[in-house]
Amino acid sequence: MAWARVCASCCWQLAEAVLPTGTGVGAEERTPLLGPAPASQSPGPSIPRDAGTPNAGFSCPPHGFTSSDPPLGGYREVDLSAGSSSPWGPGATGASWPTAVLLADLEQDARQGECALPRAAPAGLAPLKPEASQSSSPGLTSCMGARVVAEAGTGDSGSAEPEPEICLPRCGGGSETPESRRGQPPTAPELPSVMLLNGDCPESLKKEERAAELPRENGLDEAEPGEETTGQEVIVIQDTGFSVKILAPGIEPFSLQVSPQEMVQEIHQVLMDREDTCHRTCFSLHLDGNMLDHFSELRSVEGLQEGSVLRVVEEPYTVREARIHVRHVRDLLKSLDPSDAFNGVDCNSLSFLSVFTDGDLGDSGKRKKGLEMDPIDCTPPEYILPGSRERPLCPLQPQNRDWKPLQCLKVLTMSGWNPPPGNRKMHGDLMYLFVITAEDRQVSITASTRGFYLNQSTAYHFNPKPASPRFLSHSLVELLNQISPTFKKNFAVLQKKRVQRHPFERIATPFQVYSWTAPQAEHAMDCVRAEDAYTSRLGYEEHIPGQTRDWNEELQTTRELPRKNLPERLLRERAIFKVHSDFTAAATRGAMAVIDGNVMAINPSEETKMQMFIWNNIFFSLGFDVRDHYKDFGGDVAAYVAPTNDLNGVRTYNAVDVEGLYTLGTVVVDYRGYRVTAQSIIPGILERDQEQSVIYGSIDFGKTVMSHPRYLELLERTSRPLKILRHRVLNDRDEEVELCSSVECKGIIGNDGRHYILDLLRTFPPDLNFLPVPGEGLPEECTRAGFPRAHRHKLCCLRQELVDAFVEHRYLLFMKLAALQLMQQKAGRTESPSTLENGDSLSSESKPEDPPGPEAGSEEEGGGASGLAKVKELAETIASDDGTDPRSREVIRNACKAVGSISSTAFDVRFNPDIFSPGVRFPESCQEEVRDQKQLLKDAAAFLLSCQIPGLVKDCIEHAVLPMDGATLAEVMRQRGINMRYLGKVLDLVVRSPAREQLDHIYKIGIGELITRSAKHIFKTYLQGVELSGLSAAISHFLNCFLSSYPNPVAHLPADELISKKRNRRRRNRPPGAADNTAWAVMTPQELWKNICQEAKNYFDFSLECETVDQAVETYGLQKITLLREISLKTGIQILLKEYSFDSRHKPAFTEEDVLNIFPVVKHVNPKASDAFHFFQSGQAKVQQGFLKEGCELINEALNLFNNVYGAMHVEICACLRLLARLHYIMGDYAEALSNQQKAVLMSERVMGIEHPNTIQEYMHLALYCFASSQLSTALSLLYRARYLTLLVFGEDHPEMALLDNNIGLVLHGVMEYDLSLRFLENALAVSTKYHGPKSLKVALSHHLVARVYESKAEFRSALQHEKEGYTIYKTQLGEDHEKTKESSEYLKCLTQQAVALQRTMNEIYRNGSSANIPPLKFTAPSMASVLEQLNVINGILFIPLSQKDLENLKAEVARRQQLQEASRNREKAEEPMVTEPEPAGALEDSASQRQATKDPSSPSLQG
């Protein structure tokens, strides 16, 4: 079987597709097939990193829920309410399942009323059922029988780094040749699941792999030691599914498709979800009279085969089972109720797509709603039209018809007679329930071991005897059906509706998403919620019976799982992700309990700021400077920022993933103005003193320092990928101590024998721009920009992305220097290389012609390919030199010295994180090294200002990135390694930019972000002085001062409502916020805005010119609604969904009733699915090269692996689905495109938020695919929704709006709403002209679209005018002979003829009056095909009609390239490569030449 491998050039291309683009190449050139990448992602359907998000346990086959799937029948459709999960599709096609399920999980899901698998913690976590974990095999999802190739060294160490830069030069991705897939259609339904065998791959392949992975000196790409030897491929063998018959009491037998891979428990799950069996929870399955074990896999059950009959047998209840049953019934009754999503509990979140699509789009293929001629109402609401000034809030959450709750019962609650007395226990009573039916009948119900029956108790009189009708039912639902006709009717309707909803609307997300608005909700009685609140939910829900979860043990055990091959890695990553999402949820709840004062401190006698807490095996501390620990670093301010720095350190070390080195589970929660750090607890740490336990690092910022050989060895392995220099420092006794991290990083060996590192707040080098050091001058670029500036604290670090970018930049410089000198030597001009001797003279930043950082796609700014050609030549020159020639060694040594490499024989740039740390002293012998390191840090600080920030602005001008709100702007800055404290500098550069007009949107977003961040800083301290009873009053007062035009809002003090008889004496142990403090009430708008301007100046060094909110709105063109959204998201406020009159001068905009809730803002680590990400990248690379089918299969594979690790809901799965939909669309499979894109929209709404810019993008894509499937009215309502959200999030004046309005205008043109269409198209033309310049091709296209509508209206003069404009642009930009120019010229002729014909007719009428003989005028209604073609063009999808001959040429060209690459690879194998790395440079050049080809309009390109 032929296993193809991705060559280096593909890797570079693929890197470009996935990494944020930079200068050089606009998004269009980079993703030829996929058109200009949408704004909010980093161009190319890349995966947004670090966007805190999702989990649930079932995996969805790529073709689940396509248009033709019947919802039931052979397919299994599942309700995944709360945290439950289950597979579906023919026999759970391709679904894979956690291999071991712990009772722990069952307990946990019991709380949701399901004994579920889903959020299953993986093997090895529970002490309870070890055999389960061994017996079950690792299930790997295969894409319906497609083959999986796990390539040799995809070492997690490299791949999981948050920055994919690490994977760049690696070759050999999990990609394959078309042959390996032949003969298996990707969706053959009868190939559900797979078994894995490890075969050793032939030696030759291993060698090739190693040759391909060139030594990247700086460890950008180094697999873990011991990992690169696992050169096995994973070959997939089919395990076909079969169907079994289910016999359940009271219903017809039905058959169910299952897979041998599944556990018996999953069949339970499906039955608890099916409409006709959902009311059963306590049952077992029997085959031929034998009960099946919950945890056994189906393939291990003897005698189970196609057609076997499984009997559902009702089991006796226990108290636990009865509780689970009641919870499950409650969940079924609440299954359509969105209140959990509004309240932000149980990982529920909102989704509104179904409101706009009228239910599922799946069956639309047959319905063809709104065919071309059906009249459709196209008029949008007034506020969506271009030019409208109103920005209403209510349409953000349209009323979903299904949410009008069908009342089945008035009350279902635990009875006050619980628990049963002893004598009743002995009759089998487990608990008592109290019910009021919809008919107002009050009944008491006994839950006994045999089932449920009515008893004779009343509210005040206990009588446990059965009442009439004496009906005993095993299920509570059946009993209620008997006693209440309304219940029977409504419950049936409710279940029908529940089963019709799309599963993605119901599954839990992995991390909680909070909504910043909510409607006024009825507060209904809910027994389960009440019980959860009272039984300190601990222990009950953290689910291992009899004990709380040992978080530390779970987190560390999952890391220790084996990872030699793909199935093991999948299992390990799933386990890690699962435990992380559970830990994050528990830590968030604990942090809120701590701040609300519901947890007792472990040091209660100390003052509140210094208290620490332990709850549920998690340690909580507040972000205050306890015991003057941070006195020299900025006190409380430093203590506030240290936890996030520490979290970044944890994230980084987790990503490097070195075996034997452990970090703590860490979550940082901001809630009610306090910052709480939640950490897992190192075993034994609480019994010892800190001084005794720390054996590496320093507990006093460097005065006393210790080291330990084992720690040095472990940290040495992380030093390459993290670019950390091993260095020596002096301790208090002037002894030299060797470290491989900053001094603050502490090493502690726990009682479990594991080596933990903590306090990673200085993992990255300091940012000298914000750290003035007496006697140290900064480079000129920094001083010009006004640096160094004193910051509030001394913990400012550079971001990891910046360090990587800087090193990459230096690497290119190194290649150039070395190679240029070698060429000079070869040419005989061996000039003395004195210019390179002095490291500073080459301060790379001061040379403007240097290439910008690596995310600039590493191209030269000049001619694109020429610089790369040079680098390639250089690399070859260096490689051809065998290294024995002393002169060439001298050259390498000089180049190393010039770029600050720590080695003189190879490129290796690293940073010493302790340089400039107050209190750290270095030995005399290291002074030279310290001097070089100081210079390197200065260069890095200058690089940020001279390369990264200008690079960002350049990308914004070229629309390579299109942020739409504060969060997406922050994301774009962070990807380039620019900290948010540089926001003022970015805005300064925008103001000074010659293309200031084209950066208007960036300026507005930046100013809005600056104002809301400054307001957030003030709000934080403001809230700390507010006690709980005054919270809503205080928040509404703050919002009034911030946003309302009302000049003097008055705060309502909480004492208004109730008068207390006597002042109670103050308690000692108050929650942190309980100061009797009403200082907040005296704040005025003038004072707040003055503070905001001051804060902006102090923190961001930017001068705001406004004294009130109205001036800010006026001066900077902001919207109050946008500011409200930004501040609410940043601080966790939830407000009432209603229209606020911000501009009223007679009454304040907010009352205390408008503030509904305050949520925590949570920061945590996002574990990654490394193998899935490799598949995703390989798939993108294939697509780039034009192999759509293969790309599609690889991405399907990636989707399965993502599902396998993350469950069903995750941002990265969303990116996968979006790309799949796009590919299916390009390949003409509209139904499949629609199905995938619908899932992408639902997932984006659920995981990122209903108005997140990413969701807006997804809505636009879905509208296009709806239009292509002839669902015009749906397409329009989706586009209107996207436009409304864009108006709310940003406003009208955004480059993205041009695309949106073009789409809307085209669709309206298609349905012959010409006047409406013109309003949108002309707005798009205006926006395009502003942001792309009047001479851009986008503007030409816009003119053409407007001309077409005028033509349809028979207003030929206007049409001619617009088309002429377009023609002129094409002619000047592309020349006379370009096809676009010719097309435009043809169209002009055609218009002129029509205009002449019309004029003739008019003249005829004037001359002959009514007797005129008028030939009928031909006004052409646009055909759907032509409209669709234009839609594809503006959305960047181009179908190029290639003749057979073109195709042959293309194939030949691809083959020729591959041969060339083979040849060069063989050549390189022959010459052992030297220390530098020729391959990536060659690869770079290759991809550049390919890009050139794509740019050349004459070559048949696939570019959009």
List its salient traits:
1504 residues, alpha+beta, five-stranded mixed β-sheet, five-stranded antiparallel β-sheet, 47 helices, 8% strand, disordered N terminus, disordered C terminus
Whole-number mean pLDDT: 78
For the largest sheet, list the strands in their spatial order: 4-3-7-5-6
**Basic shape:** globular
Strand content: 5-15%
Question: Distance between the terminal alpha carbons, to the nearest Å?
Answer: 35 Å
Please tally the helical runs, counting DSSP H or I stretches of 4 or more residues. 47
Low-confidence stretches: 1-238, 364-373, 536-546, 830-866, 1062-1068, 1471-1504
Q: Class by helix and strand content? A: alpha+beta
Main beta-sheet annotation = 5 strands, mixed
Percent range of helical residues: 40-55%
Give the strand tally.
25
Q: Report the radius of gyration as a whole number of Å.
A: 33 Å
What does this structure look like?
The protein has 47 helices and 25 strands. The strands form seven sheets. It has a five-stranded mixed sheet with strand order 4-3-7-5-6, covered by helices on one side. A five-stranded antiparallel sheet has the order 13-14-17-16-25, sandwiched between helices. A hairpin with a 2-residue loop joins strand 10 (442-448) and strand 11. The chain starts with 7 loop residues before the first helix and ends in a 9-residue tail after the last helix.
